[in-house]
Design a protein that fits this description.
The structure is a homotetramer. Chain A has a single domain, classed as Thiol Ester Dehydrase, Chain A (Roll). In chain A, 21% of the residues lie in helices and 34% in strands. Chain A contains three helices and five strands; from the N terminus they run βααββββα. Chain A has a five-stranded antiparallel β-sheet. The longest helix of chain A is centred in the N-terminal third of the chain and has 16 residues. The first copy, chain A, is elongated, with a radius of gyration of 15 Å. The interface between A and B is medium-sized, with 17 and 17 residues.
């Protein structure tokens, strides 16, 4: 599991005083890139190797609102691998402290594509190794 | 079914040239309010009656990218009703023309809460009537 | 003068209940493209002709907060022309009604560049004609 | 001078490959809160003391585009004090390294208001001390 710190911005908090739902997908997107980087594959290196990933599905469960100033972290883990697709799990926690409140669970499905032609490709070792063993977060 | 036009903004298009995934939740949010309004219940009137709705789950399937200038519409329909929760279906189409390409499917679950205390409430007739009969979009 | 309607989104309203300041630059950006389009030069046609415009300076005066649901318009006009640069004035009004409250004034400076090389170019007739006569809004 | 690190997000980069202009105001907003915090006055403490600040004017000069992954910092300093208003200078640099390229200069004017009534107030010592001596950045 990889833990990615996110700075919540004032403008991401809506009139109800909590982070607007759409911003979680932004957090997941940054956490995904951070996860690849942590696994030794910076996004640019993946592109240079001729591969890219496309988001095909997102699921989000909202458990508790996040507020401006909350020192949240997004935990990330690969949870399943197909032939050309893989699944990442994301879990937003109130802080980096052990046992901190779960605010949001997310699960996204990506397909691997050719970086230029955008046609599907089998998951290369490059990506498989960067993502590590499947380890669902919830 | 209700059809809500959305103006795609240049800044919503990312470096890949298509709308960034998180913006679809913004489109759905506006379409939801438009749908209530269309059903005779402006959001403020719902709040004034003592009710609010909270998003608890989102699902999005990305089918085709949307570009700046695409005259997209978001079709909206209620697809299921529970005791305190209901489900809305959203479908982004490339344009308002009949048979226009489906770009994105979305499904979101809301619970009805007391506008001030934020505790769950049974769906009142006010909301039930505004949403109409269940009619899944996909 | 050209008047561009803007749909304020719920997520653009911050915890203070009014549109967050950064969104006005988004509104101006869309209004700029709409202004060019209105002048007979869709943005893509400008690019196809080998020209692009780059923002070099923005000024914004915030007069009154805008709220979700306010049917605002952004009035646009060219206010000054240099050799390679021009200035656009933007004025956000509470609604399209004559005499509606001024919420925000904006002034932005653009330079004309080669669409590919991004080097400065004298303002071509194509752009000059689309923008019309200088007519400051404030 | 105070230096505030900003994580540029992928979704903030537009189709031209650089950060969209409106996001700089978001960066300045976060840097402003960070600056107050650094000066010993967390935003919430200011509100609790009965004061708030309202943005009345922004100026931005765009010098060079910022890209995803650039480890930018926003330098902040107070540059002028009036009776009820003060001016902050912001300077975005390509990185935290000494002499790093200047990407953007910003200057914003705030007025001090009563936290609840939103009427103007003379700058209290609380705020004056947190902001330090005037020290223009450009």
């Amino acid at each position: 599991m990889f833990s990615f710190p996110v700075t919540v911005r004032y403008m991401e908090v809506d009139a109800q005083g909590v982070v607007f739902n759409g911003w979680y997908l932004t957090y997941f997107d940054e956490a995904m890139a951070g996860f690849f980087n942590h696994g030794g594959l910076p996004y640019q290196a993946m592109l240079d190797a001729g591969f890219d990933v496309q988001l095909v599905r997102s699921e989000i469960d909202y458990k508790a609102g996040v507020r401006w100033g909350d020192p949240i972290v997004v935990n990330v883990s690969a949870s399943r691998f197909g032939r050309t697709s893989f699944v990442l799990d994301f879990q937003v926690r109130r802080s980096a402290e052990p046992g901190a409140e779960v605010c949001t669970n997310g699960r996204t499905v990506y397909v691997v594509v050719h970086a230029k032609e955008h046609t599907k490709r089998e998951i290369p070792d490059l990506i498989r190794n960067a993502l590590g063993e499947p380890d669902p977060l919830f």
